[in-house]
Structure formats: structure tokens, C-alpha cells
Design goal:
single chain, mainly alpha, Helix Hairpins, 2 domains, 3-stranded antiparallel sheet, 11 helices, 3 strands
């Protein structure tokens, strides 16, 4: 596959990648809205700009975009939680700036090393765990910054000093992210490859999953009707809700049926009649048998899936290397990816 053909992304892939990224970032932005909608809006804007810049450098399709969005979402969550814990009095102007520093540093490093990183992205190699210790090393450096920020009495400083400490900590993390840019990009490529493999597996598992969900829904409705009818025909309520005897409407009965089928046991609705308890025990047993059925169907689909994955890897190993990146005779395929 040539570099030019690999760089091209169809409009459908671009739109799907943008939709996945937008949905995930909007969800996370809404989740951290307790930090203030201003911070959520700024974080969303920074994430969108970062995604746009990375897409210009690595137009690798929706799965790569989803991996990048996942990394940004985790970063937003960690920054919101740890930032409030270690720097509770930091000024509002310092929080967006501190959030921006590592993201801007990473995107800038990607742009400066875009040619080497693009060759890495075009290596077309399967996921490789050998490089993970290098990524873990950079991650450990970042964790040290977080531990130091939480362990030292920075949270007792005045607001201005906390703001400066926040910016200093994020500047250090920005330097780490710039230095580790190659390992991070390789990890994102591996995540995209893993997501592609999982997508192929889900295609094989679609039938047993759909069957399991259909039977689960059917049994939940059937037992929910049983509970509702039994409670309606009884002279006295057969269930307790919020500590008091109460009649069940159909939505309550269906809720109790789903909870019983899943063996969750919230405890908000409890049966008091021996007959209903026996019926609930039967439903739990049926639910366990249904779970065994789902595992059996998945295991039965596994040999065909493994055979297809093995054939895909065999075809991949015999694929021609990208134009302009022919490996030396006898060199491993991994070296084509820049490792």
C-alpha cells in the first residue's frame, strides 16, 4: 500500500471519526461541568483543536481518532480530579492555561516530528507490546509529578501561589509529553489496531449477543408479568417498597424482574410472600442458565474467529512494504515502523 493511498480518508471515515470524537468529548465535558461550564467549554475547544491538528498529521481513520479522543477524555478527567485535589484555590485563569500546556506541547512535538511519526503510522504492523515499557517509563514520570503535587502542602498556599504551582507542574508534564511523543503515538496506533481487531470479533459475536439480549428481554417481561399478576390477585401486597408494603405497577414489576434476572439485588423492592420468593429464585436460576448459554455460544464462535484472525495476520505478514520504506534483507518487519 502506498503512502498516498494510505493517507486518503473517505468522507464516511472522516465523519464517523468526527462523530465518535465529538460524542465522547461532549460526554466528558458534561461530566466535569461541576468544575464550571467555562472550564468544560474551554476543555472541549482545546480537545477539538488538538483532534483537528492530529488528524492533519495522522489521517488514519475513525479508530485512530477514537483512540486519541479516549486519551484526551482520560486526560480531562484526571486533570479535573487531581487539579481540584492538589490546587483547590488556583485561579480560574490558571486552570485552562494549565490544561492547555501538555496538549499544545504534544501537538507541537507531533508537528515538528511529523515525517518520522507518519512513517511510524504507515508501518502497518500489528499491535506490539515490546515498546510498552518505554511508555510506562514516561507515564511513571508523569505520575511522580502528580504524587508530589498531592503529597506536598501546596493546597495550603494562597491562590496566586497555587496558580503558579499548577502551571509549573503542568509545564513539567508538557515537557514529558513532548519527549514521549513517539511512544505515545505508537500506543495510539496500537489502540487503533486493537479496536479494529475487536470490531472484527464483534461481527462474529453479533448473533450470540443479539440472541442473548432477546432471550433476556423476553424472560424479564414474562417474569415481570408474573409478579404483577400475582400481586394484583393477592388480597395483600406481596412486596415492600421503601420499607412499607406496596402494590406494584407494571414498571415496578419490570424493574424488579430485570434486577432479579441480573442478580443485582438493589433492595429497593423486596418480596415478602414465599410464593413470590420461590418465583424469584426460579428466575435467578433461569438467568444463570441463560448466562451459561451465552458463554457457550461465544466459545463456539471462537474457533472460527481465531481462524479468520490468523488468516488475516498471515496475509498481513506477506503484504508488500510501503513505498519508499523497504526494509533491509533479513530485518524484522517491526523496523519498517520506525522501531
Amino acid at each position: 500500500m502506498s503512502r498516498r493511498s494510505h493517507r486518503r480518508s473517505t468522507p464516511r471515515h472522516v465523519l464517523s471519526g468526527a462523530a465518535l470524537t465529538l460524542a465522547l468529548t461532549l460526554l466528558v465535558a458534561g461530566g466535569v461541568a461541576d468544575q464550571g461550564w467555562g472550564f468544560s467549554a474551554i476543555a472541549l475547544g482545546i480537545a477539538a483543536l488538538a483532534m483537528g491538528g492530529l488528524h492533519l498529521i495522522f489521517p488514519q481513520g475513525p479508530l485512530f481518532a477514537l483512540g486519541v479522543a479516549n486519551g484526551l477524555a482520560v486526560y480531562i478527567c484526571l486533570y479535573a480530579v487531581l487539579g481540584r485535589a492538589a490546587f483547590p484555590l488556583a485561579s480560574d485563569w490558571a486552570r485552562p492555561l494549565g490544561f492547555l500546556l501538555p496538549v499544545a506541547s504534544f501537538v507541537a512535538a507531533c508537528w515538528l516530528r511529523r515525517r518520522a511519526l507518519l512513517r511510524l503510522a504507515e508501518g502497518l504492523v500489528p499491535p506490539d507490546l515490546e515498546h510498552l515499557p518505554r511508555f510506562a517509563r514516561w507515564l511513571m514520570f508523569t505520575a511522580v509529578v502528580g504524587v508530589v503535587s498531592l503529597a506536598t502542602p501546596i493546597n495550603r498556599l494562597p491562590p496566586f501561589e497555587q496558580s503558579l504551582a499548577l502551571l509549573a507542574a503542568m509545564a513539567v508534564i508538557a515537557g514529558i509529553s513532548a519527549a514521549a511523543v513517539r511512544d505515545v503515538v505508537r500506543l495510539l496506533i496500537d489502540v487503533a489496531a486493537i479496536l479494529q481487531t475487536v470490531t472484527a470479533r464483534l461481527a462474529h459475536l453479533a448473533v450470540p449477543i443479539a440472541t442473548y439480549i432477546s432471550i433476556f428481554a423476553l424472560l424479564s417481561v414474562v417474569f415481570g408479568c408474573f409478579y404483577r399478576i400475582a400481586d394484583g390477585l393477592s388480597q395483600h401486597p406481596l412486596f415492600i417498597q421503601t420499607g412499607a408494603p406496596s402494590r406494584l405497577d407494571f414498571s415496578d414489576a419490570l424493574h424488579f424482574s430485570v434486577v432479579t434476572m441480573a442478580t443485582v439485588g438493589y433492595g429497593d423492592i423486596q418480596p415478602t410472600d414465599d410464593g413470590v420468593r420461590l418465583l424469584a429464585a426460579i428466575q435467578i436460576l433461569v438467568g444463570q442458565l441463560l448466562l451459561l448459554f451465552g458463554f457457550a455460544e461465544i466459545m463456539r464462535s471462537t474457533p472460527a474467529l481465531l481462524h479468520e484472525v490468523a488468516g488475516s495476520r498471515k496475509d498481513h505478514s506477506h503484504r508488500e512494504p510501503a513505498a519508499g520504506h523497504d526494509p533491509a534483507p533479513g530485518s524484522p518487519r517491526r523496523e519498517v515502523a520506525g522501531e
